[in-house]
Model the fold of this input.
Amino acid sequence: MIIEIPDDVMAHAPLSEDEIRIEVLAVLYKKRVLTLEKAARLAGITRFDFQHILAERQIPIHYDESDLEMDLRHLSELKH
Done:
């Protein structure tokens, strides 16, 4: 999907295209529309960098029991 913002609107916006993309992705992550990994990938940055952006905006990381189980499973697989 492509969202077009008219040039005259962008001329008055204090944000670059990349900054607007990050803001939209942060909101979509906050609303649980996107996962952390997907939002970071769409932003073109690492998960760690996206987590830093979320922290700056005081958006908590979504991490629940199923995430923990998946992380533990991946760690177990790495051991073998």
Remarks:
- The CA atoms of residues 29 and 35 lie 6 Å apart.
